Amino acid sequence: MYISKLHIKNYKSFLDSGDIDLKEDIFAFIGQNNTGKSAILDSIQAFFPTSKKGISGEDFHKGTKEDIVIELWFKNVDESYLEANIYKDKIDKQNEKINEAYDLYIKENTDANLKKYEKQKEKLIEIKTKELNEAVEKYGIDNEELYIKMVAKKGSSISKKYYNKNDEELKEADLKKILPQIKVIPALRDPKNESTAGNNSYLKDLIQMLDDESKTDIILNDKPLTYSELNHVLSEETKKRCNALAETITSYYNDAIGSKDFKIVIDASVNISKGTQYTTTIIDTTTGIMNDILNCGTGYQSMVILSILETYVQISQSNTQYILLIEEPEVYLHPKLQRRMIDTLLKISEKNQVIFTSHSPITVSKLASNNVKIVEKNNGEAKVLPISPKRVIDELGIKPDDILYSKGIIFVEGKDDIEVISELIRKIDESIIDKINIIQAHSCENLKFYANAELLINTNFSVPVLILRDADIKKPEVLKDNLYEEVAFTLLNEPQYANLEEKELEYKKEKLKESIYVLNEHSIEYYFVENKFLSEFASDNIELEYAIKCYECQYRKQLEEAMNGKNQKNNFESCFQPKRFLEGFPDAKERDREKKEESLKTRWLKLSESCECTNHYKIDNYLKVRDEIIANIKKFYIEGNNLFQYIIRNNDLAVLKEGKLKEIIELLEGFIEKIR
């Protein structure tokens, strides 16, 4: 569940923000100081009934008597989410009854006990249907979207009420059940306010976020515990978990500052009636001096926050999804640590929505243009405006420094692309790898990509450049033209190029177009779907051979239909893209993976009816082999290996060129010749 849209009226600097569309993963608001960026994050906090931020008379726009109205739209409010958050207890109780009935049937195998067992399973379906329908009706959920409006009225005191899309009032208690948790990191980390806030500090919330992800090993063994005994057991268990978390945070912290002289200590005490209190201390092990981190400077706090977030990425099991609201995550961090911060936030955003404000060209540069909006203020009224890549580059001063002093530049989309291209270059000529700068653009809409492209255009592409991207579900030649037109339009139509002679402008355009190469296949994973590469991940080579033939048949057919507009992108990518064959759904939220697997297998089994294969190894065999490959590759990754690096390193270049990788290898060989 994530915030897909926001609308603010009469709150702080906003008279009427209009609809602000947000992204599921990560989103940034940029702008000058005092334009209203913080007011956006404040409005989201004020909306959530669990938040510590309230609404005061000073929050009404220019002292207006009109109501403050904050509207939020949430998406992915599906059946599994509602079950987990609204009626899980009822489902669990019914499952207990099912298990009891099943045990009785196993013990006494009679028709009567079988009927009782079947009846309890039917009852479970009835409960799920009833609870789902009631939740959908109560909250006004439509097509897995939840709309909630908060209205704050000014009077002798400020009153807040909530309404669904049918304008029916919702109680705060009901909202607390369905809304996701938010975690807030403010920009002004005021030691005085934070250190006196006790349970209400942002640092307490972050430590609690780690604690929520930790596994407990408390075993009660049916022993009845008194209130004080239970409190003691919980306190000891919490301290044990906090010690383990503190060790990990300390490691990241010392790595960040380049020293091993500091130790982070987290102390926790549990009181069942009051909750858990956390105290975070930093100790200089060389002097023995210790300080509460909330009494330290903002720079120290920022580094501890980075270390906590990195720890969260390491231990997260996706048991709970959060919405993180962060003001200026880069504050007082060295540029190197700013890069680590945005990399960490990008990793967190794979499973949690991250919304932040920023002044930093480094943190924003790794985002795509549609993941950023600019906030401006005129006559005391804030407005949220769309941006162009060029505008963000000019606003924040994103520097295209990645390409300086390089002999050759290769832009790629993802982490896997970097690993594959790097290993292949080493395989072709290991001596040249240090002369080539391989830059991950995440996508070719990435702001850092535009900044580098602008420098390359200005320098007439004096450095050999390769802009490499996957075909996805578009025809390579069409995608190449689209990418060229988009970059050329974004950059070459700027005023700085207005006085160029037509011949020089055409030269720049031609060099840009020559540098773009679109792979012939959907994604780089496809080039590794070969028997000789996957044989050690399958138990039967013949079954593997026919499973790959089966996959190739449907991959080619479904991709062609997608390229011709006869197959939707999400249908192809959810069932037929190479990643689904090799890894399953590692990019999906954990709670959604089982459902996506079921959907994929249902889709494939339906194809059995039209399958024209002459051998007896058909789609059932493909699905069986696929399950085995995914399980074995997952173990391979858990052991710290990388599939693509392993395949390239363990095969001769000639062997690699015999298969699908020939396309990429010959492309790189031609590129390397330009550098030698």
Automatic annotation (TrEMBL):
Keyword Ribonucleoprotein attached: no
| Molecular functions per Gene Ontology | endonuclease activity
Location of the Endonuclease GajA/Old nuclease/RecF-like AAA domain: 1-362
**Start and end residues of each OLD protein-like TOPRIM domain:** 404-472
**UniProt entry keywords in alphabetical sequence:** Coiled coil, Endonuclease, Hydrolase, Nuclease
**Highest taxon in the source lineage:** Bacteria
The UniProt entry's coiled-coil ranges are: 107-134
Q: What is this protein called?
A: Predicted ATP-dependent endonuclease of the OLD family, contains P-loop ATPase and TOPRIM domains
Q: Which organism is it from?
A: Lutispora thermophila DSM 19022
